[in-house]
């Protein structure tokens, strides 16, 4: 990547675009909602069960003008979800400003591990043990979505719930490959601790992206 392009990426005027697609939001509070997803490359959080590991290396994904990304997005939906990778690896100020100027509802799915940039209508925080969220992301999260891979994740979920704001909606979501084992455990846990809700990856059951 040449120096000029690198500077544009650093400013958020270009982003390493992995993919963009129009589909149904499958998870969390907005499940069932039509949304346009913008997946940016780059993540060093390194979850071993990540189902989009090809997003980790930002150098594999071409720097794309942010304006062009927005032009594509506005053709499809007024709900935009920016995901990754870890989108907060990059400055989200430009892309969210452009999307908001088009009247879009702008959501982010993030581990919260980096500085919160951008203007968001909805922040889905999915914290990871290897690199915990920043204080600002905890304070601004609209939903907390903890992935349950093993029993220790219930302990981790309670720790994270203590750090978010009082209006944040709390979700436990089974890691897909472990769903047969952990779904019954999550159901029992939510019934015993009803401040939590169950989130499922419904898009995988629907066999859509």
Summarize the structure.
This protein is of the alpha/beta class. It is built from 7 helices and 9 strands.
Please describe what this structure looks like.
The protein is an alpha/beta fold and 209 residues long. It has one domain: TIM Barrel, CATH 3.20.20. The protein is 29% helix and 24% strand. It has 7 helices and 9 strands. The protein has helices at 3-11, 66-73, 93-101, 135-140, 152-161, 179-192, 202-205, and strands spanning 14-24, 34-40, 63-65, 79-83, 105-110, 122-125, 143-148, 169-174, 196-198. The chain has a 9-stranded mixed beta sheet with strand order 3-1-2-4-5-6-7-8-9. Helix 2 runs parallel beside helix 3. The longest helix has 14 residues, at 179-192. The radius of gyration is 17 Å and the shape is globular. It catalyses: 6-carboxy-5,6,7,8-tetrahydropterin + H(+) = 7-carboxy-7-carbaguanine + NH4(+). This is 7-carboxy-7-deazaguanine synthase. Pfam families: Radical_SAM. Residues 30-209 form the Radical SAM core domain.
């Amino acid at each position: 990547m040449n120096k000029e392009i690198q500077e544009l990426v650093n400013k958020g005027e270009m982003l390493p675009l992995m993919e963009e697609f129009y589909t149904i939001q499958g998870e969390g509070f907005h499940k069932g909602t039509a949304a346009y997803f913008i997946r940016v490359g780059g993540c060093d959080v390194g979850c071993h069960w990540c189902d989009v590991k090809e997003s980790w290396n930002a150098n594999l994904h071409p720097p794309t003008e942010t304006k062009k990304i927005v032009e594509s997005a506005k053709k499809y939906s007024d709900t935009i979800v920016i995901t990754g990778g870890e989108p907060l690896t990059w400055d989200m100020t430009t892309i969210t400003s452009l999307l908001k100027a088009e009247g879009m509802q702008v959501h982010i799915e993030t581990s919260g591990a980096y500085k919160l940039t951008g203007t968001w209508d909805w922040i889905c925080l999915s914290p990871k043990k290897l690199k915990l969220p920043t204080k600002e992301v905890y304070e601004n999260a609209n939903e907390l979505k903890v992935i349950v891979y093993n029993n220790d994740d219930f302990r981790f979920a309670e720790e994270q719930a203590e750090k978010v704001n009082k209006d944040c909606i709390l979700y436990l979501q089974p890691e897909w490959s472990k769903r047969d084992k952990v779904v019954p455990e999550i159901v029992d846990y939510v019934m015993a601790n009803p401040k939590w809700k169950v989130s499922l990856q419904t898009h995988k059951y629907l066999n859509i992206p």
